[in-house]
């Protein structure tokens, strides 16, 4: 047995995957061999789901029935919506509400869990249903929290446009739906990140897909992972409300030993390629609205961090100002990340199931040895 301790499993290979590849020194990300820049520019989220789940980019005649099947699965049963209603009334955190509602979807899934772990077709059908329903849950939560009734999904809109429609009660402009769709594309997969690993660990015990996705949502929620996008926007708002410039704020935060949200990465040594794509969109939205401050604060922090620390932005840094300028409430940024990353979670579970092995690392025991046992009445 190797005795080397790798805290945080840093650099440890745990699987072979043909889903996504990251070159951390070159700042390059590919999904199944396609550069993220090409996918972001040219494909829809549905095409990327097809790519991840089926292994190749769809032709038009493959995409059409795939989109139709996804759209048919968007509606969420009243029983689940009624739980979402209760969670909204209790002011539950939206990621926690999503985690609970996704877990509950399993009660009404038409596929039985028996034999699921060895059957990619069941996993894929369940994956399609969960992915299709997550936007309906997130939008319903937001509307109920605001005292509005949920809006039923439409089947004639894309995954991205339908979410914005259910959220706001009106069809989004094409340009906004396209930006949102691109955000879903770039968040869909990223190697064995913490939430994907959580999904794989659960799947490796031959559990069911709802359990895997529920585990993954819990992992994505944390501040060191998907939760960072909300913290970025809270930081930008704090800067805006105070007299400090963005650079002064960042200097003070660093000097007091804080981590700047949206910076740093376990795999990238350079700027995350997704931050470049999202940064350009954040800038374009600022230009369209003639309001540059969010992008300007962000750029100033990026330049300061590069000069002072050499640490570059990750995917969560520019998605924050981008979503903010689209009018999306801050605490929905991480649920939106989950709405996209579920595509990757399902793909990794499907891939891992093909040659499953229980994931079970070890800890080096550093506790006491050979203690003499004393009965409770004599301690
Ligand atoms: C979708 C995603 O999950 S992307 C990541 C989202 N998370 C964040 O943005 C939260 C802020 N970032 C971080 O906390 C980290 O960069 C992580 C958790 C993402 C990666 O952490 P690790 O790989 O464990 O890097 P580690 O913690 O070893 O950091 C290396 C050095 O960079 C510093 N550092 C890393 N990130 C930051 C940051 N955001 N702000 C300031 N310093 C940082 C650390 O203090 C450390 O310095 P030291 O060696 O002098 O102690
Ligand atoms: O890969 C990681 O560790 C975190 C990340 O950027 C992602 O999950 O998108």
TrEMBL record:
Active-site residues, as the UniProt record annotates them: 265, 316
Gene Ontology BP term (one): tricarboxylic acid cycle
Known pathway: Carbohydrate metabolism; tricarboxylic acid cycle
Keyword set, alphabetical order: Acyltransferase, Transferase, Tricarboxylic acid cycle
EC number(s) reported in the record: 2.3.3.16
Organism: Halorhabdus tiamatea SARL4B
Record-level Gene Ontology MF annotations: citrate synthase activity
Protein name: Citrate synthase
GO cellular component labels: cytosol
Pfam families in the cross-refs: Citrate_synt
Cited InterPro entries: 2-MeCitrate/Citrate_synth_II, Cit_synth_Halo_CitZ, Citrate_synth-like_lrg_a-sub, Citrate_synth-like_sm_a-sub, Citrate_synthase, Citrate_synthase_bac-typ, Citrate_synthase_sf
Record's catalysed reaction(s): oxaloacetate + acetyl-CoA + H2O = citrate + CoA + H(+)
Top-level division of the source organism's lineage: Archaea
Transmembrane segments: none
Record-stated family: Belongs to the citrate synthase family.
């Amino acid at each position: 047995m190797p005795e080397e301790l790798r805290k945080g499993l840093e650099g440890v290979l745990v699987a072979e995957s043909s889903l996504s590849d990251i070159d951390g020194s070159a700042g390059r990300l590919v999904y199944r061999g396609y550069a993220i820049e090409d996918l972001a520019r040219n494909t829809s989220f549905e095409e990327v789901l097809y790519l991840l789940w089926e292994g190749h980019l769809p032709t038009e005649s493959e995409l059409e029935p795939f989109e139709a099947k996804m759209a048919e699965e968007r509606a969420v049963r009243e029983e689940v919506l009624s739980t979402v209603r209760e969670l909204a009334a209790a002011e539950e955190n939206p990621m926690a509400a999503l985690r609970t509602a996704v877990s509950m979807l399993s009660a009404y899934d038409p596929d039985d869990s028996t034999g699921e772990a060895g059957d990619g077709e069941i996993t894929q059908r369940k994956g399609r249903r969960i992915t299709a329903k997550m936007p309906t849950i997130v939008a319903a939560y937001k509307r109920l929290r605001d005292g509005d009734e949920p809006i039923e999904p439409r089947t004639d809109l894309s995954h991205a446009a339908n979410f914005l429609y259910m959220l706001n009660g009106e069809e989004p402009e094409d340009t906004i739906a396209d930006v949102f769709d691109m955000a879903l594309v770039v968040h869909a997969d990223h190697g064995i990140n913490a939430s994907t690993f959580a999904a794989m660990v659960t799947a490796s015990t031959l559990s069911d897909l709802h359990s895997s996705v529920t585990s993954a949502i819990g992992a994505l929620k944390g501040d060191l992972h998907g939760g960072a996008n909300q913290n970025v926007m809270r930081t930008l708002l704090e800067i805006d409300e105070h007299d400090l410039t963005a650079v002064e704020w960042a200097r003070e935060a660093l000097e007091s030993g804080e981590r700047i949200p949206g910076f740093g990465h376990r795999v990238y040594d350079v700027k995350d390629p997704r931050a470049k794509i999202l940064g350009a969109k954040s800038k374009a939205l600022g230009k369209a609205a003639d309001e540059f401050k969010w992008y300007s604060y962000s750029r100033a922090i990026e330049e300061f961090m590069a000069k002072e620390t050499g640490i570059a932005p990750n995917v969560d840094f520019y998605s924050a100002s981008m979503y903010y300028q689209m009018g999306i409430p801050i605490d929905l940024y991480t649920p939106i990340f989950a709405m996209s990353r579920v595509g990757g979670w399902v793909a990794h579970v499907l891939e891992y199931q093909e040659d499953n092995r229980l994931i079970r690392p070890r800890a080096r025991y550093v506790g006491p040895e050979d203690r003499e046992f004393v009965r409770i009445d004599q301690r």
